Amino acid sequence: MVSAGLQSLIDHEDSLKSQLSAVISYQQTCKDGIKHPSIRAVIGLRLQTVTELTSNALALAEARDGGYPTWFSATDCGLSELHGKGLLKPNVVVAKDGSGQYRTVFEAVVAYSENRNHRGTYVIYVKSGMYEENITLKVRWGTVSMYGDGPRKTIITGRKNCHDQFTALRTATFSVRGKGFIGRSMAFRNTAGPEGGQAVALQVQADIPSPILQRVIQNSVIMVKKPLDNQQNTITASGRADDRQTTGFVIQNCQIVRGQELFPVRFSTATYLGRPWKRYSRTVVMESTLGDLIHPKGWLARNGTFAVDTLLYAEYANKGPGADTSGRVDWKGYKVITNRTEALAYTVAPFIQGDQWLKRSGMPFLLGLKL
Fold first, then answer.
1. Ranges 193-202, 205-214, 327-336, 359-368: which has the least confidence
2. What is the pLDDT of residue 167?
3. Rg of the chain on CA atoms, in Å
4. Which of 178, 174, 169, 175 has its CA nearest to residue 198?
5. Interval 80-92: pLDDT, tens
6. In terms of CB atoms within 10 Å, which of 22, 79, 189, 341 comes out highest?
7. CA distance 218 to 288
8. What is the pTM of this model?
9. Residue 177 near residue 137 (C-beta atoms within 8 A)
10. pLDDT at 35
11. Contact 347/366 with Cβ under 8 angstroms?
12. With left for phi above 0 and alpha for psi between -120 and 50, is residue 35 left, alpha or beta?
């Protein structure tokens, strides 16, 4: 017989893992955003106990549950399915041409924050257009679902950056804080460029963000741009600080290509698939086409040998001139996957339990391997 407390843990395992992983990630991001070394050291020391307790809790979350993410209410599941069928009715509409209730996304977010009597999911539809705004959405009651006309049509853009004296946390074009945000069919971007230093497009500090925003990048074109002189490009920098965290990146069935400005200097300006931001950084690139811009080593070290034994970087069944693995890094944490069964562990079904909820979301996706 399973006790009520244990059964509750089992029933909410995936959601719990996501929440605990988010706690660790946010702690690390907060600490990294402090520029003064002595203050950063003091904050790190005071966070140590909390980090250890969170890591221990994450170790206890070992069961699994089915369906949509467990924090999705029945209404959220229904709204997701309605969106997939094109039948979703929004609470408010944003349109630059004045055909909605509001012309800016900011106004719609304010309307939500002032609507304290609303129950359930508050739906915001952002029509096609370029919205030059910096927005912080604080989800204080219910959940918020925001959708557009597609990532190439509905774009929220900004250019705050660290060079202009903003901390990395404050550069976000769109920031979500709170519990329960569902975002889809729109793009968030930061156009600060390499001159701006660190600059964030989308920041999610939600306790339980939708997995629609998580981890797996499929069927996409990743265009790499020219950095400043004497700099290099890294496509990913996973911040996985605990080996039990469910975080990491999977790039599947994508094309990694060079932008127009990078083309003439692509062999003298190194581009890497990733570098470790934290000790247990995890990135898998598979079934993708890698252009000739990818450096033969493939992956970039950070501070000498930091994390090279504890990270997990892997490649599987890639093609193209940048996919040759014969000259890759010789790290304990790097591998070329040759076993199909091993590669399957990083596909949508097992990695984000996509087989249990993505089919009803209306999004195109690969459930397993392409071939």
1. 205-214
2. 84
3. 21
4. 169
5. 555 555 556 889 9
6. 79
7. 9
8. 0.68
9. yes
10. 65
11. yes
12. alpha
Q: What is the pLDDT of residue 40?
A: 65
Residues 50 and 128 in one domain: no
Q: For residue 354, give the H/E element and its range.
A: none
How many structural domains does the chain have?
Answer: 3
Identify any residues that bridge with 129 across adjacent strands, giving them in sequence order. Answer: 154
Same domain membership, residue 359 and residue 216 = yes
Per-residue confidence (pLDDT) for residue 250, from 0 to 100 = 92
Q: Which two tokens stand for residue 33?
A: 């955003």
Q: Are 169 and 205 in contact (CB under 8 A)?
A: no
Q: What is the pLDDT of residue 367?
A: 82
| Conformation bin of residue 219: beta by default, left when phi > 0, alpha when psi is -120 to 50 | left
**How confident is residue 16, by pLDDT bands cut at 50, 70 and 90?**
low
CA distance 14 to 340: 25
DSSP string, 282-332: EEEEES-EE-TTB-TT-B--BTTTBTTTT-EEEEES-BSTT---TT----T
- Which residue from 116, 115, 118, 137 is spatially nearest to 126, judged by alpha carbons? 137
Q: Which residue has the higher pLDDT, 75 or 314?
A: 314
Look-up of token digits 């809790």: 57
In this structure, the answer to whether residues 164 and 274 fall within a common structural domain is no
Beta carbons of 29 and 169 less than 8 angstroms apart: yes
Is the pLDDT at 307 greater than 80, yes or no? yes
- 84 and 221 co-located in one domain: no
Q: Taking the CB of residue 174, how many other CB atoms lie within 10 A of it?
A: 27
Distances (CA, A) of 262 to 6, 195, 201, 259: 54, 15, 22, 5
Same structural domain, 191 and 220:
no
- Contact in structure between 62 and 69 (CB atoms under 8 Å): no
Q: Which of 92, 109, 103, 161 is nearest to 130 (CA)?
A: 103
pLDDT of residue 363: 59
Q: What is the pLDDT of residues 101-114, one digit of tens each?
A: 999 999 999 999 88
**Are 89 and 121 a contacting pair, CB within 8 Å?**
no
Which pair of structure tokens corresponds to residue 217?
């990048």
Amino acid at 40: R
> To 10 degrees, what angle do helices 37-60 and 13-32 make?
170
* C-alpha span between 354 and 367 (Å, rounded): 7
State whether 251 and 264 are in the same domain.
yes
- Which positions ≥6 away from 169 have C-beta within 8 Å? 29, 30, 33, 200, 203
